[in-house]
């Protein structure tokens, strides 16, 4: 069993995460450190220290106050949601068949914002269909295309509903970029419903093992994927269970969850 972190180690870890968030946001906006320094009135040198996990003591004091109040630092310093770009972007997470495309398009229409299928943006970035991207370039290259596609979407859309690829959550840096720049919702469903929906949509891409062994193997694979990714999907800001519900009911719940 690992020994608990000392207060000094906890502080260092917190500053490191804070630096990652700042750097991730800046990269997502394609903004140089110099440009952010000028926009914020903070020195470029301090921003470099902050991104390196070396923020000054005032950050830690603010964290201590928040902890004493039993609220997050984000709650303590939250700006008006209407002026926070991350509050105006909504990203839907989940496996294929969760309802991201159907509910996402309807939610975007209801909110009057763009609907973006990130997988389509990856294809645009790579100049090839997803299957071809994996076949020609491999998993590592796909992740690079996915990261660049997300950065472009965030740069071009201050308000949008984004349907993220089912496996995006397995890439720590890209997932962090999404979490930092969007309100995220996990659309959760039972394995059987995932399978029924992708079949009804004519999605012929097999889940691992299902091409040879059939439907039961596909459902077993979905069940395993859900179990493996439960911890990752659970990091979303909210969860909407879509199993056994009419589309309108799920949409109403989703709209309630993303209401500022």
Q: Name the helicity range.
A: 55-70%
In total, how many beta strands?
5
What's the average pLDDT? 80
Q: What does the oligomeric state look like here?
A: single chain
- Which shape, going by the Cα principal axes? globular
Q: How big a fraction of the residues is strand?
A: 5-15%
Largest sheet: 5 strands, parallel
Strands in their spatial order, largest beta sheet = 2-3-1-4-5
Q: Please tell me how large the radius of gyration is.
A: 20 Å
From N to C, what is the helix and strand string? HHHHHHEHEHHHEHEHHHEH
Helix and strand composition category: alpha/beta
From the structure above, extract its key features.
62% helix, single chain, globular, 5-stranded parallel beta sheet, 260 residues
Topology (elements, then pairings):
Blueprint: H1 7-28, H2 33-40, H3 44-51, H4 57-69, H5 73-77, H6 85-88, E1 89-93, H7 100-111, E2 114-117, H8 118-126, H9 130-137, H10 139-156, E3 160-163, H11 172-181, E4 183-188, H12 191-200, H13 210-213, H14 215-233, E5 238-241, H15 247-257
Parallel strand pairs: 1-3, 1-4, 2-3, 4-5
What does this structure look like?
This protein has helices at residues 7-28, 33-40, 44-51, 57-69, 73-77, 85-88, 100-111, 118-126, 130-137, 139-156, 172-181, 191-200, 210-213, 215-233, 247-257; strands spanning 89-93, 114-117, 160-163, 183-188, 238-241. The chain is α/β, with parallel strands linked by helices and 260 residues long. The chain has a five-stranded parallel sheet, with helices on both faces. 27% of the residues are buried. The model is unreliable at 79-83 and 208-212 (pLDDT under 50).
């Amino acid at each position: 069993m690992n020994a608990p972190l000392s207060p000094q180690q906890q502080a260092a870890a917190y500053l490191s995460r804070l630096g990652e968030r700042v750097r991730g946001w800046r990269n997502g906006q394609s903004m140089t450190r110099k440009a952010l320094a000028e926009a914020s009135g903070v020195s470029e040198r301090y921003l470099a220290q902050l991104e390196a996990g070396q923020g000054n003591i005032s950050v830690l004091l603010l964290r201590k106050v928040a902890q004493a109040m039993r609220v997050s630092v984000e709650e303590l310093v939250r700006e008006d949601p209407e002026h926070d770009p991350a509050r105006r972007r909504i990203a839907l997470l989940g496996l294929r068949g969760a309802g991201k495309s159907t509910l996402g398009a309807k939610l975007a229409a209801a909110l009057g914002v763009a609907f973006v299928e990130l997988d389509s943006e990856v294809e645009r970035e790579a100049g090839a269909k997803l299957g071809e991207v994996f076949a020609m370039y491999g998993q590592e290259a796909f992740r690079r295309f996915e990261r660049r596609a997300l950065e472009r979407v965030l740069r071009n859309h201050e308000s949008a509903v984004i349907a993220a690829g089912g496996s995006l959550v397995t890439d720590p840096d890209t997932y962090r970029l999404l979490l930092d720049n969007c309100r995220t919702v996990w659309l959760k469903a039972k394995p059987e419903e995932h399978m029924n929906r992708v079949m009804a949509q004519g999605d012929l891409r097999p889940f691992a093992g299902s091409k040879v062994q059939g439907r039961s193997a596909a459902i077993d694979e979905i069940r395993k994927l859900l179990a493996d990714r439960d911890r990752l999907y659970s990091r979303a800001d909210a969860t909407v269970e879509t199993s056994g519900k009419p589309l309108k009911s799920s949409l109403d719940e989703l709209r309630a969850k993303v209401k500022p």
